[in-house]
Design goal:
By secondary structure, the chain is α/β, with parallel strands linked by helices. The protein folds into two domains: 131 residues, 3-Layer(aba) Sandwich (Rossmann fold); 56 residues, Winged helix-like DNA-binding domain superfamily/Winged helix DNA-binding domain (Arc Repressor Mutant, subunit A). The chain has ten helices and six strands, in the order E-H-E-H-E-H-E-H-E-H-E-H-H-H-H-H. Strands 2-1-3-4-5-6 form a six-stranded parallel β-sheet, sandwiched between helices. Helix 2 runs parallel beside helix 3. The longest helix has 14 residues. The protein is globular and about 50 Å long. About 4% of the residues have low confidence.
Amino acid sequence: MVVEDRPVRDDTISVIDRTADMDVIAVVGSAKGALSLLDVKAPDVVVIDQYSGTDSATTCAEIIGRRPSCAVVILTAAPDDGVLHACLAAGARGFLLRSADGAEVIRAIRVAANGRTTLGPEFVETVVRWAREARTVCGEGETLLGPKEMLALALAGQGKTNRAIARHMGVSEPTAKRYLHAATRKLGVSGRSAAVAVGIRMGVI
Protein backbone atom coordinates (compact mmCIF):
# COMPACT_ATOMS: atom_id res chain seq x y z
CA MET A 1 0.00 0.00 0.00
CA VAL A 2 1.27 3.48 -0.87
CA VAL A 3 0.28 6.66 0.99
CA GLU A 4 1.52 9.56 -1.11
CA ASP A 5 0.59 12.92 -2.51
CA ARG A 6 -0.07 13.40 -6.20
CA PRO A 7 3.25 14.87 -7.45
CA VAL A 8 5.35 11.84 -6.53
CA ARG A 9 2.75 9.11 -6.63
CA ASP A 10 3.34 7.91 -10.19
CA ASP A 11 7.12 7.60 -9.74
CA THR A 12 6.87 5.46 -6.62
CA ILE A 13 4.10 3.27 -7.94
CA SER A 14 5.80 2.66 -11.28
CA VAL A 15 9.01 1.61 -9.53
CA ILE A 16 7.15 -0.91 -7.39
CA ASP A 17 4.99 -2.16 -10.26
CA ARG A 18 8.09 -2.88 -12.35
CA THR A 19 9.40 -5.18 -9.60
CA ALA A 20 8.42 -8.79 -10.28
CA ASP A 21 7.72 -9.87 -6.70
CA MET A 22 5.82 -6.74 -5.61
CA ASP A 23 2.34 -5.37 -6.25
CA VAL A 24 0.74 -2.06 -5.30
CA ILE A 25 -2.56 -3.23 -3.83
CA ALA A 26 -3.84 0.24 -2.90
CA VAL A 27 -2.94 3.90 -3.33
CA VAL A 28 -4.33 6.47 -0.91
CA GLY A 29 -3.66 10.13 -0.27
CA SER A 30 -4.14 10.28 3.49
CA ALA A 31 -3.66 8.42 6.76
CA LYS A 32 -7.43 8.07 7.09
CA GLY A 33 -7.59 6.38 3.71
CA ALA A 34 -4.79 4.00 4.61
CA LEU A 35 -6.37 2.98 7.90
CA SER A 36 -9.78 2.48 6.29
CA LEU A 37 -8.31 -0.05 3.86
CA LEU A 38 -5.79 -1.68 6.18
CA ASP A 39 -7.86 -4.69 7.19
CA VAL A 40 -9.46 -5.07 3.76
CA LYS A 41 -6.22 -5.02 1.76
CA ALA A 42 -3.95 -6.55 4.42
CA PRO A 43 -0.68 -5.15 3.00
CA ASP A 44 2.69 -6.61 3.90
CA VAL A 45 4.29 -3.16 3.68
CA VAL A 46 2.90 0.38 3.77
CA VAL A 47 5.02 3.13 2.21
CA ILE A 48 4.19 6.56 3.65
CA ASP A 49 5.34 9.76 2.01
CA GLN A 50 5.58 12.48 4.61
CA TYR A 51 4.19 15.08 2.23
CA SER A 52 0.82 13.32 2.05
CA GLY A 53 -0.62 15.36 4.90
CA THR A 54 0.04 12.62 7.44
CA ASP A 55 1.68 12.60 10.82
CA SER A 56 4.00 9.79 9.79
CA ALA A 57 4.87 8.57 13.28
CA THR A 58 1.27 8.52 14.48
CA THR A 59 0.08 6.79 11.33
CA CYS A 60 2.91 4.27 11.59
CA ALA A 61 1.99 3.46 15.19
CA GLU A 62 -1.69 3.07 14.30
CA ILE A 63 -0.91 0.75 11.39
CA ILE A 64 1.40 -1.45 13.44
CA GLY A 65 -1.02 -1.40 16.37
CA ARG A 66 -3.78 -2.76 14.16
CA ARG A 67 -1.62 -5.08 12.04
CA PRO A 68 1.62 -5.96 13.86
CA SER A 69 2.79 -8.04 10.90
CA CYS A 70 2.68 -5.01 8.59
CA ALA A 71 5.95 -3.14 8.04
CA VAL A 72 6.08 0.62 7.44
CA VAL A 73 8.60 2.49 5.29
CA ILE A 74 8.75 6.28 5.57
CA LEU A 75 9.82 8.64 2.76
CA THR A 76 10.69 12.10 4.02
CA ALA A 77 11.51 15.38 2.29
CA ALA A 78 14.61 16.28 4.31
CA PRO A 79 16.67 15.00 7.26
CA ASP A 80 14.93 15.78 10.54
CA ASP A 81 16.12 14.22 13.81
CA GLY A 82 12.75 14.69 15.49
CA VAL A 83 10.81 12.95 12.73
CA LEU A 84 13.42 10.18 12.56
CA HIS A 85 13.17 9.66 16.34
CA ALA A 86 9.40 9.57 16.32
CA CYS A 87 9.08 7.22 13.35
CA LEU A 88 11.66 4.72 14.62
CA ALA A 89 10.02 4.81 18.05
CA ALA A 90 6.67 4.12 16.39
CA GLY A 91 8.13 1.03 14.73
CA ALA A 92 9.04 2.16 11.20
CA ARG A 93 11.17 -0.40 9.35
CA GLY A 94 12.52 2.02 6.78
CA PHE A 95 13.38 5.71 6.69
CA LEU A 96 14.56 7.24 3.41
CA LEU A 97 14.64 10.57 1.64
CA ARG A 98 11.81 10.83 -0.85
CA SER A 99 14.49 11.61 -3.46
CA ALA A 100 16.03 8.14 -3.02
CA ASP A 101 16.42 6.22 -6.26
CA GLY A 102 14.09 3.40 -7.16
CA ALA A 103 16.54 0.62 -6.33
CA GLU A 104 16.98 2.00 -2.82
CA VAL A 105 13.22 2.21 -2.26
CA ILE A 106 12.70 -1.34 -3.50
CA ARG A 107 15.49 -2.63 -1.27
CA ALA A 108 13.96 -0.87 1.76
CA ILE A 109 10.54 -2.39 1.04
CA ARG A 110 12.01 -5.87 0.64
CA VAL A 111 14.11 -5.58 3.81
CA ALA A 112 11.11 -4.25 5.78
CA ALA A 113 8.95 -7.16 4.59
CA ASN A 114 11.58 -9.50 6.04
CA GLY A 115 11.39 -7.84 9.45
CA ARG A 116 14.59 -5.80 9.24
CA THR A 117 15.27 -2.07 9.08
CA THR A 118 16.82 0.16 6.41
CA LEU A 119 18.02 3.72 6.86
CA GLY A 120 18.94 6.04 4.02
CA PRO A 121 22.64 6.97 4.06
CA GLU A 122 21.69 10.48 5.17
CA PHE A 123 20.36 9.09 8.45
CA VAL A 124 22.98 6.50 9.37
CA GLU A 125 25.38 9.01 10.92
CA THR A 126 22.60 10.39 13.11
CA VAL A 127 21.79 6.96 14.51
CA VAL A 128 25.51 6.25 15.03
CA ARG A 129 25.81 9.54 16.91
CA TRP A 130 22.88 8.57 19.12
CA ALA A 131 24.57 5.26 19.89
CA ARG A 132 27.82 7.03 20.81
CA GLU A 133 25.96 9.44 23.05
CA ALA A 134 24.07 6.66 24.79
CA ARG A 135 24.98 6.26 28.42
CA THR A 136 24.40 3.56 30.99
CA VAL A 137 21.12 3.97 32.78
CA CYS A 138 22.28 2.29 35.96
CA GLY A 139 23.07 4.13 39.16
CA GLU A 140 24.58 2.74 42.32
CA GLY A 141 22.90 -0.62 42.57
CA GLU A 142 19.61 0.46 41.02
CA THR A 143 18.36 1.34 37.58
CA LEU A 144 17.48 4.88 36.71
CA LEU A 145 14.12 3.69 35.43
CA GLY A 146 12.17 0.87 37.00
CA PRO A 147 10.90 -1.96 34.77
CA LYS A 148 7.31 -0.66 34.80
CA GLU A 149 8.50 2.84 33.92
CA MET A 150 10.55 1.40 31.05
CA LEU A 151 7.56 -0.61 29.81
CA ALA A 152 5.23 2.39 29.98
CA LEU A 153 7.76 4.50 28.07
CA ALA A 154 8.28 1.79 25.45
CA LEU A 155 4.51 1.53 24.92
CA ALA A 156 4.31 5.31 24.62
CA GLY A 157 7.02 5.06 21.99
CA GLN A 158 4.73 2.76 20.01
CA GLY A 159 2.17 5.56 19.92
CA LYS A 160 -0.20 4.01 22.45
CA THR A 161 -2.58 6.20 24.44
CA ASN A 162 -2.55 6.26 28.24
CA ARG A 163 -5.64 4.05 28.24
CA ALA A 164 -4.00 1.53 25.91
CA ILE A 165 -0.82 1.55 28.00
CA ALA A 166 -2.84 0.91 31.15
CA ARG A 167 -4.74 -1.93 29.49
CA HIS A 168 -1.51 -3.54 28.23
CA MET A 169 0.10 -3.29 31.67
CA GLY A 170 -2.99 -4.40 33.54
CA VAL A 171 -3.12 -1.26 35.68
CA SER A 172 -5.42 1.74 36.01
CA GLU A 173 -5.01 4.72 33.69
CA PRO A 174 -3.84 7.02 36.56
CA THR A 175 -1.18 4.44 37.44
CA ALA A 176 0.01 4.30 33.84
CA LYS A 177 0.20 8.10 33.80
CA ARG A 178 2.21 7.98 37.02
CA TYR A 179 4.76 5.59 35.47
CA LEU A 180 5.10 7.88 32.44
CA HIS A 181 5.45 10.97 34.61
CA ALA A 182 8.13 9.27 36.69
CA ALA A 183 10.04 8.21 33.58
CA THR A 184 9.84 11.74 32.15
CA ARG A 185 11.02 13.29 35.42
CA LYS A 186 13.92 10.86 35.86
CA LEU A 187 15.10 11.43 32.29
CA GLY A 188 15.12 15.15 32.94
CA VAL A 189 12.87 16.15 30.07
CA SER A 190 9.46 17.72 29.60
CA GLY A 191 6.81 15.80 27.71
CA ARG A 192 6.22 12.29 26.45
CA SER A 193 7.82 12.74 23.01
CA ALA A 194 11.04 14.06 24.53
CA ALA A 195 11.12 11.17 27.01
CA VAL A 196 10.69 8.64 24.21
CA ALA A 197 13.46 10.29 22.17
CA VAL A 198 15.85 10.24 25.14
CA GLY A 199 14.84 6.66 25.92
CA ILE A 200 15.83 5.60 22.41
CA ARG A 201 19.16 7.42 22.59
CA MET A 202 19.99 5.86 25.95
CA GLY A 203 18.95 2.39 24.91
CA VAL A 204 16.19 2.23 27.53
CA ILE A 205 13.54 1.38 24.93
